[in-house]
Amino acid sequence: MRRLKVFKSLVVDSLSVITHGSKKYHIWMGFLTFVMLIGMYCYSIQLDQGLSVTGMTDRVSWGLYISNFTFLVGVAAAAVMLVMPTYVLKDIDFKQAVLIGEGLAVAALIMCLAFVIADMGGPSVLWHMIPGIGVFNFPSSMLTWDVIVLNGYLFLNISIPFYILFRHYQGKEAKHNVYLPGALISVFWAVGIHLVTAFLYQGLQARPFWNNALLGPRFLASAFAAGPALIILVLAIIRSSTTFKIEDKTIKKIAMVVTVAAQVNLIMLISELFKEFYAPTHHSESAYYLFFGLHGKNALIPWIWTAISLNVVATFILTFHKLRNNLKVLYFACMILFIGIWIEKGFGLIVPGFIPGPYGKIVEYTPTAIEIGVTIGIWALGAFLFTILAKTAINIELGKLRYKSDN
What we know:
Elements lengths: L1 H17 L4 H27 L14 H14 L2 H9 L6 H25 L22 H28 L6 H27 L12 H27 L6 H30 L7 H8 L8 H19 L1 H4 L2 H19 L23 H29 L10
Helix pairs in contact: 2-14, 3-5, 3-7, 3-8, 4-5, 4-7, 5-6, 5-8, 5-14, 6-7, 7-8, 8-9, 8-13, 9-11, 9-13, 11-13
């Protein structure tokens, strides 16, 4: 009964915290709410008229929604780069950042699930994915594996921080032997969610663009570059707008992770380009379409070359110690790296897998205003949830939010 009472008090206190704040905070939350309403309006049109209002067709059946889903799986998995050194290796430099990273993972995973629901057309078809009720096709279907690992990772990233914050809310230290097993599982689970997502694409025999043994490792490399890059940007905002201070050395340690991952990602990109273009076959047509266009169709050329340029510039900046240690330059490098990987892992990966089709027909894909509206609405939802989680966690960690017992 006491724990239930403490939990009720935590909920009440958290609601008080997230509904009060500075003028900038209320403007930010109001802006996100407005964008979410736009997304909901666009989604209502999609529910009413079906997926025909999107740019997707029977030729290109995955577009903006699945592109963002694939990218956000990597952002969620990146939290492990803070979990391992903090909980397992006991590196105190990461201690203040780890809860922010896990909050970001929770927001990313919820956005992943929202993008899947949007891509399926609507929530009314989700019952097909419920074991015992729908047709789950476990273990033969890679999609069912994806459902399991994503929901399992979401549970881990909610339960571990909640336990730690629940103890801190009561003025107690979290017990190491309670959360450590979950932290260890989450380390391997984070790798698993990205590998399973990669296997989902690799297992489609009629899509040679995805039949690449490097797809899984490159997913991980890009995830461990883009995810921590976003964490650095978020930490920069938090420490400039709150009293929750993040040490420079914490940001610089995370920057080292970003640097190594970005370098490995570029090396793998070069390897893929060599494989596609040194001795091309008819299976290289998707890559030719992506990088150079095919039969006069070239919609993705500006996107992919912009992405590669941003990746190269960001990696170049991060590689040099003097540039990386300048925080303003670091933030710029992280921003363009994040954008570059978002393009490369989205439009640069998903769409060209369908072009040309199995019979050689080229049908290009362009997202509609409805798709873009739903997409920005889901991103606003993620930012809204993360802001709520971060504000509550920061106040607990600063000691401003404490359980007041009757005694």
